[in-house]
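agent: user wants the full assembly modeled, not chains individually. Plan: 1) parse entity lines 2) check alphabet per entity 3) run joint structure prediction 4) return tokens. Steps 1-2 passed, two entities, 1194 residues total. Proceeding.
--- entities ---
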Amino acid sequence: MFLPRAITFIILCLLWVSCVEVYEVNYHFNSDVITVDGFVTNGYGLTVTLKTARSEKATYYSVPLRNCEVEVRVGDGSVVKLAEYESGVYMAPATFNGQVGQTYQLHFRTPTGKVYESEKEQLRASPEIDKIYHKYNRDGILDRTGKRVAFSSLDVYVDFKDPANERNFYLWRWTDYEEQGLCATCEGGKLDSKTFICTPERNSRTIYDYRCDAPCWEIFYSNEITVFSDIYSNGRKVEAQQVAKIPFYSMGGGFANRAALVEIQQLSISPNAYEYYKLLRDQAQNTGNLTDTPPSAIIGNVRNIDDSTEEVVGYFGTAGVSKSRHFIDKRPYSNAYKYLMLGREPSLEPDSPPMPPLFESRPPLAPCVKSNTRTPTRPEGWLL
Amino acid sequence: MAFVKMKIRLLFFLWLTAGIGIAGAQQRVKQAPTRPFELSGIVRDSLTGEFINNAAIRINFDKSGLYTDSTGTFTIMLSEADYTLVISRLGYRPHRLKFRLDQNIHLDVKLLNVAKELEEVVISTQAVDENVARPLLGVTQLNIKTIRRLPAILGEVDVLRSLQMLPGVTSVGEASNGVNIRGGAVDQNLILLDDAPIFNPTHLFGLFSVFPPDAVSSMELYKGTSPARFGGRAAAVLDISMANPSLDKFKLQGGISFVANRLTAEIPLVKEKVGLLITGRGAFNDFAFQWGPQKLKNIRASFGDAAAKLFWRINDKNTFSLSNYYSTDFFQTDLLGGINNINSVSTQYDYNTLNFTARWFHAFNDRLNVQTTAVFSQYRPTILLPELNSDNKVTIGSEILQRQAKTNFNYTPNKAHKIEFGANMTHYQLQPGTLNPGANDRVNPLRVPNEYGLELALHAEDEISINPKTTVSVGLRYSYFMALGPAAVRSYADGSPKSEASIIDSTFYGSGKPLQTYGGFEPRVGLRYTIDELSSVKLGYNLMRQYLQVVSNTTTPLPTSRWKMSDAHIRPQVSQLWTVGYFKNLKNNIYEFSVEAYYRATQNVLDFKPGADFLLQNYIETQVLQGRSKSYGLELMLTKKKGEMTGWVNYTYSRVFNLVDEGPRFNERINDGKWYPANFDRPHNVNMSFNFSENKYHSLSLTFTYGTGRPYTIPNGFVSFQGKAYPYYAERNQGRIKDYHRLDFSWQINNPTLKDKRWIGSWIFTVYNLYGRKNQYSVFLKTQGTAYTAYQLQIFASPIVSLAYNFKFM
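--- prediction returned ---
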């Protein structure tokens, strides 16, 4: 009797656990909400991003909320005016820095005259990160069905001491620097060697990548939410807290991605901010399990002061920040499932045959242009 | 597929040939030469000695039969042969005997007592006019034999799944931890097994129900007017009784199925005086998962339940019984909702129930009797988090302890009155959560303070026959609940949502001090007006109060879901139910037809706030909102009770809506304070159940069920935030999963050797979900970066074939 029972039980569990399939839902989106994202920190300045998120039928998109009057009201009575630095992104003067113990409140008026306000948030100090280390995880990231390994990952952990006698809530963000060997891509054309603009060619469907003319680093940011509450461990040493799961980035082709430099920012946030980020995390990470978090409106601490029923997504928070950098030599991990930075193998423009002097030889090298996601400046802590 | 088809054909062939063979054998028996003899008898109540009229005498399994007259006697002339006799009457334990009629025989039969308080009865037949005459509405007596014949998933006879074949009883899907009755939530049902409450009615997260199938003797489902003796839950009562052990004969029965093994023994300890029933069931196959695919490697599952009942017939006027029930479950899966600072890769759920019921029945005389019951009930769900690279397990425990004493008098002064009255006292002790880190020094131990409560109730009910056409049942219950200290009660600022931020004061109440009391009358009224002998109209009104409930934010409550008593902030749920019904028996009571309509209004139903978290939460009021619920429905049912083919067809239209509006802020209301469908709102339901039993040796059953898909929440849009897409939900439950339907089949072969022996074996072949409908359990979204995909979770999405062997030794 044993064997059939065993088999049935396996079947039972197959049916029970893994019968998850993609399902076509007929969406009838019809939402139009303002999203607010900003933190007052000690050390990272103050940036607030305002957008309108629209969803219609089965698509969604965001429109920057431009030309707002944005200010932050400080507990000591002072007011910090924010200027629109790029579309929908408002920044405080570079001299501004958050102070531990002080309260901050966001206040903004849209061009249509609607006025929004956040709750007051107090800035709390963050304890220092005592130790930062990583583990190479060959089967780190699964595909969306959760059945196959998609990429290897570098899992970063921290140890720190949670302060006793107060409730503490943490949010971690990471920045990852990776060597970038390709600084331009042209689709259906070639890179002009002087202007570094792609020149289209008729009927061409080629995709060409161009090497950088100097050392260059690609910058990646976290988009998963990692939060922690000391509710069960107040005053204890927190050990092996995983704060980042960084895909095993690679250029592919013959490019060597020898190392990664990870900066971990440990933010000490308010209880309400913790609740909000936890809710946000849970809403995106449903697994179809019986214990799934039920759907909830992801509404934070910002309100329309004239209409309390208007729903505003996002959070204006305060955070003390402590940071730590960790350099990872990736060369020992030769069996990794790589996350290709371009989403494909590189495709270089073929070398032109040797040319006489005065004629230019192709392909040209592209400059490494500094941006949010790329830098020619050697990052602090890069050891190679 | 071809193989399956061939198999089915083969089965039908076997069935047909078996049927023909048996029929042929009977033909030959009939041809034997015969001489007539008189068979007569007198049937009496075993306790009072009163004659029992209208008792059915069924000869050779309904080949012929007759009823006793008003003096309890019967006489029939029969030819010389072997006979099997079953003497039964509703409310009495049937009497069976076998003999050879080769002379005139007079039988003196005593049927065991009518009062179900004395000995639970196997209701083998519904009295012909039962449906029409009883004043209560929405009462269903379920015959455990009927349930045994229904196709059961993996061969496990299942009380709760069978209930869902009845009108007005639904669930949220395959893995639902309980049933929804007439728009009631799962925790609004009072489920009693020998008077002890069952807090978690299913094994393995809803796959099987916890009631030991071989020990259940009767089940009454009160989905309409509940008798006044029941209270404490807002929607319905499911009263399950365990069989009393045989007092004269050792009996053994059991079974082997793919999932579990069962054994039940009835042992007479002192003949005609003391008997013991022991039953056990276990499924401990979890090692099998190790050979499964990678994803299942981490899964372990096992469950078991056991019960014992000691019955002592002290004398003709006193009986005493002691029942015990134990149920245990263990389930391990990949980590679900871990706890900060604990490195664990799996979550283990371990939960068990331990109940005791002691019951003393005393008959003062044939008009007055009293039953006194003491109940101890303990339910302990635990979550365990085994730590990585360590033997340590961090445990999150909780416990419900319910102790109850009650007494119930039955007084029948004359034919016009049936009076019942009594008192009930229940003490609750809830341990909402303890966190025990074990050897882990990075986690602090934590203990959420216990909750204590005392519920007192008095009840009286009279069933009055006003005239031959009209009977009313008037019941009144008064319940009084005290939430007791020690407890700290917070005060929150007026006009603000209850949260950490709005606390203005905290008051401490000492041990045993009431911190809040609630109470009120609970009228229960039923009226039956007989139009003619075969049809009647009934009206009912019911009010019930519930002081103990589940707070949960999952589709179906988990075994580890938090139970919460009413307190200074959580008000008790109060439910009122109005029902009207029309009942008609047709064609010599072969068919029974009923229409029932109901409307229910419930106050103070609990719903969770956005982002609510109940785990180890001391102040539940900061996580929940209270609102109203309304439900209404129409239930049509046609039953065929006799003949080779029996069964029923029913259709239910029902709706359930909730309204939650505690204030204008988004976290004080749900769906802008408008009515929204509840999780288990499934408007159309059709159930069909057919049983074909040509003879006692085998029977075929087919059941079909259809239900509108339950609601789920579709996002109103998506929001891109910090480089990732998040679903944006503005409303709750505005989408629906696909409709549910399923056909099941079972073939039961009894005693295949066709020999009459003390050992009787039977095989049950079952196909659950015969045509492999891929029913959805849930639809959910996953986002990766800025992309999102919807997925469906399907449970039992292909035909599940099983074979079970059951045996009886008696």
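agent: reporting back. Residues 2-18 of chain A form the longest helix (17 residues). Confidence is low (pLDDT under 50) at residues 1-8, 13-18 of chain A.
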